[in-house]
Every structure is written in structure tokens, then in C-alpha cells.
Amino acid sequence: MSESSDQQVLDAQRGTAPTTHAQLAAWVEEVAALTQPQSVYWVDGSQGEYDRLTSELVDSGTFVRLNDDRFPNSFAAFSDPKDVARVEEQTYICSENRHDAGFTNNWMEPAEMKAKLRTLFEGSMRGRTMYVIPFVMGPLDAEEPKYGVEITDSAYVVASMRIMARIGTDVLRRMELTDAFYVPALHSLGAPLAAGEEDVAWPCNEEKWIVHFPEERSIWSYGSGYGGNALLGKKCYALRIASVMARDEGWLAEHMLIIKLTSPEGKAYNIAAAFPSACGKTNLALLDPTIEGWKAETLGDDINWMRIGKEGELRGLNPEYGLFGVAPGTGWGTNPNAMRAITKGNSIFTNVALTDDGGVWWEGMTEETPAHLTDWQGNEWTPEADRPAAHPNSRFCTPIDQIDMLAQDYYSPDGVEIHAILFGGRRKTTVPLVTQARTWSNGVFMGSTLSSETTAAAAGQVGVVRRDPMAMLPFIGYDAGDYLNHWDSITAKADPDRLPHIFLVNWFRRTPEGGFAWPGFGDNSRVLKWAIERIEGKADARETPIGFVPTGDSLDLTGLEGFTPADVEVAVNVDPEEWKTELASIEEWYGNFGDSLPQSLRDELAGLQERLRA
Ligand SMILES: Nc1nc2c(ncn2[C@@H]2O[C@H](COP(=O)(O)OP(=O)(O)OP(=O)(O)O)[C@@H](O)[C@H]2O)c(=O)[nH]1
Ligand SMILES: O=C([O-])CC(=O)C(=O)O
Ligand SMILES: [Mn+2]
User: Fold this and answer.
1) Which helix (H) or strand (E) holds 259?
2) Residue 384: its pLDDT value, please?
3) Is the CB of 303 under 6 A from ligand 1?
4) Buried/exposed code over 333-372 (b: 16+ C-beta within 10 A; e: otherwise)
5) Cα 113 from Cα 181, distance rounded (Å)
6) What residues contact 82, with CB distance under 8 A and at least 6 apart?
7) What pLDDT does 4 receive?
8) I want to staple 135 with a disulfide (CB 3.0 to 4.6 A). Which of 167, 210, 304, 573 is the partner?
9) To test the ligand 1 pocket, which listed residue (283, 352, 560) has its Cβ within 8 A of the most ligand atoms?
10) Which residue's CA is the closest to the ligand 1 atom numbered 7?
């Protein structure tokens, strides 16, 4: 298309911005003028639109349509091999003052960053459609719905956003009623097309910037089409920007799953759990209990917005609409609930392998490995290959209401009372399977010093231990010390008797022989049962310097063949030598906070030092 007819399409679109929200219409026009797309399209969120967009993505080679019998209305996409995970090195918090980004974030002067971004976005959508996606995080009938509008030049992003958030005309109409505030979330692949130039299956740019302006509550994302870099309602809005909103408005935006467990006696407990990326949130959220009589229901698998309720209770709500789950390791044996949800269809898979009969496969999906596959990079693959068939960070994107075990409370705009919080990470050594905090502040200490080995969910080296406070290290949108103080001040407003009980868990500990010290997955229900029985004052525990761990026979091992109380002792062992090393690492971590560390946490550190010395 020639320059002048581009301009005509643009002008025509501008005249008909289908919204009475003047500020939004103006922003869309401003972005179109900057990025110079071929056309502007307002996403209505309908099924017909989704079907049309996905067909176009099939035609253009971005999507492969899967075998409709096994994966109805589902598609596979394959990214550029350099665009496979969140890019933390290129993720910025551009607050007015450097201090407000803290030591855990990259920072640049907002004006300098804006200038840099404007240059990159100039003409960045040439030859492409600019999609405008009105969306809301959390329920549309919330007291104050949390609106956003993502502008993107990626149809893959539009299709994925429709699964992950409530989007489209219904949301737009509600925003218009009050000229509501929304988070402007601008995304470009950074891959403009010249006239006549043929597109590639996964356009993106070598240069990537994931930038947040917390005071403005705006997001600019450039160069990546993948996951948390591009689906801006998720990590960018619902965690980084929302954490700043939460600080200012008196609530908490956390990287947590929420699960409801009901005991054989019919008593229900809602448990929130903060684990870093690729450390087991989606799996625990879809838990298939292996113990008799216990029922599990899903409320959320990644994000938990919490506030203090009218009776001083802590309430949590999942603001998402879909799952964006790690594919490898998700299988009929380990996570049948996820597999049932996925195979209902309506899903987008990214960077998984293809089977010869038009299905998808990834490591751990089935016990038997298919004899022949097409790997995520399009190469022939057989079990003899020395590389995985699916990328370790390959993902399924599936509507949340396809989960059979979804709790009815998921739809409640008030959320649910949280009775327990788990903090967990991926540690081969040192950290026991489960440890109950001595007190609330001791539990916050556990969260603030949480550690985990890095995973494929972020670009960079895998398997390096790092501190990851509340599993929020890459997602705190402001100063980390202020964040810990905010935790203190919010929860000080709760009824102390209704504060959740806190536990530290580690499903990933190894035995001296190298295997997992705990079977994990469905058997994690046994650990949750112990936690609930601790809350009820029923289960036995042994006191250690770091907290209370199960005695060998206090974990219910019924039906767990070949696993004995002696194995429990190995899984919960607290080794004084390992903990001396751990303490030094915690001290070093806390050193980063300087004066901003809350006194309650200083006291907790002193207590731990003393108990380890004794
Ligand atoms: N050994 C073991 N592995 C687990 C367990 N739970 C999850 N995993 C594996 O850990 C990986 C990540 O699990 P997920 O549940 O997808 O992690 P997540 O926290 O939801 O990850 P993000 O979506 O990136 O935030 C998968 O490969 C799982 O198979 C467990 O209890 N034991
Ligand atoms: O954001 C992503 O790309 C995927 C995700 O859930 C995470 O990394 O925690
Ligand atoms: Mn997940």
C-alpha cells in the first residue's frame, strides 16, 4: 500500500473512533500518528472476531490449526528463538525519582526514556494493523473496575488477551459511562513492514524494552511478542503497575495462586501461595488431591489482589480470565485437571512440539514419548535427539472457565478470605519441604527472604539461587524496602486473629542421592492437610531454629507407596551447616535495603541469628 493511501485509511479511521471517551480517542489518535499503522482496528471481543483473527493468523503462518477432534478451536505458534521469555534486563521502572524504583529495578530518567521510546515507536507499526483492546483486570462489576487499554500491532497478542482478560466493547461501554481512568498499555513488535515486504511468522525486534511509568500508570513495551513482555494486562499491569496503585490505595498486588481446600469435615480454607515463575503456582492451583475426602477448587493461578475486608480479614481476588501456564511437566500423571482444561480446546500453545497427527506435545505430557515430532523450532525430532522437543518455557493459554474444579467464588467481586499463605521456591538443598512460621512477622520474614533457583521463564542463566521477596522480585513496581513496609502497614490494619497463617514450602528439594525428596504435585495435598491441621491445632510438629516442621509421622502418607516417615525426616531436615551459609546470604540480601528495612524484619533476623547460634 502506498504512503498516501495509508494516510487515507488512517484519516478515515480517525474520524470514526468508536468511542465517546474523549481522552481515549485522543490517545489512540496520538499513538496512530506516532506509529503510522496501515489501519486502526477497535477490538470488540466477540467470538466471530476471534475466529476471523485466528484464521488470518493461520493464513499468515503465525498459527498452526490443531487437530480439531483432540484440540478443538486451538492453535500453535512458534516464536523467534530470541523471543521466548520475559526479558528482565530490559524491564524498567521509570519513576520520577530514582529512589522510587529501588535497588531491584532498572531505572532511567522518565523524560530520557520517553524520548528513546518515541524514536523507536516512530513508524514502528507501518504496514500493520494497530489493534485497540479495551480490557479490565478483575470483574467488570467491581466497585472500581481496573481498566486498561492495550494498543498493539500483534494479532497474536489480541487473540491471547481475549483468553487472559475480559476485553472488548462491553468493557469500553462501561469505561465510557464515567470517562473512567484506564492504564494505557502500548505495545509494538518493532517490526514495521515496507510496501510489498513479506511478513515473517513471528515478527519482533532484537532490541526490547519493557517500560513502566508508575506515576502515570502507563506501560510501553517494544520489540517482543512473547508472554509477560507483550500481554500487558498480566505482569506489567496486574503486578508492576498494580503494585504501585496498591501502595497508594491501600491494598496488595501479589504474585500468588489461590486455592480453596475443603476438609472431610466440610471446613473450607482459602490458601494463597507465592512461588516465583515456573515454580509450581499453576500446578498447585489445579491440585488433584491424593488423600481421601479432601476437595480442591481453583480460584487463581498467578495473581492475587488482596485487601482488608470489613471484618478485618484479608481478602484475595484473581484479576485474570485465563491461564498462561508452563507446558513442560504438565501431564496426565502430574496435573490431570490442567490437561482436562487444555484439551477442551479454545487454547493457544506457544513453542510446544507438534505431533504428526496435528496435536501438541511437550516433555512430561504423557508417559510415553512419541516416536516422531516436529520440535518448537520446526525441526524433525525423535527421542534420540539431545534437545527438548518443546521449549522449557513453552506455554498453554486457556480460558479459566474450562477448569472443571474452578470455584464458584472465582466470580465473586469481593474475592475470598485468605486463611493461609505459602511462600515457596525451587531449592535443591537447605529449605525443608514445609516450615510453619512462628508468628505473622516471622512469616513475613520468610516471604521477604524467599529464595529460588532461576528458571527458563526469564531470559538468562537457569539454576542460580537468588532472593525473590514474596516471589515479586521482577514485579515490584517501586522501591523494594517501601514494598516491605507497605506489607507491614496494610496487614497492621487487619484483625490480628484473622491474619493468615504462613508456611514456607519447597517441592524441589533433592535427596543426597539426587532425586526429588518429595513426590510433589497431587501429593502436595498432604502438605496442605498438615498446614490446615496445624492451623486447627491438631498436627504434630518439631520446633527448629527456622520454624515448625512436620514430625515423620505427622504427614499423612496413606497410599503413598514406598515413602516412609524416615523419608519425611530427610525432606524436612534443617541442617545447621547449610543454614549458617543461608544466614550469611540472608544478611547480605538485607544489606541491600539500608534504612528502609522494617524494624519487625530486623528483629526477625536477629531472632534467627540467635536461634542458629544456640
Ligand atoms: N518436582 C516437582 N515439580 C513441580 C511441582 N509443581 C510444579 N512442578 C514443575 O514446575 C514447573 C513449573 O510449574 P508451574 O506450576 O507451571 O509454575 P508457575 O509458578 O505457575 O509458573 P509461571 O506461570 O511462570 O508463573 C513445571 O515444569 C512443573 O511440572 C512439584 O510439586 N514437584
Ligand atoms: O510472564 C510470562 O511470560 C509468563 C509468566 O507467567 C511468568 O514468567 O511468570
Ligand atoms: Mn503459571
Assistant:
1) strand 257-262
2) 97
3) no
4) ebbbbbbbbbbbbbbbbbbbbbbeeebbbbbbbeeeebee
5) 23
6) 204, 206
7) 47
8) 167
9) 283
10) 280
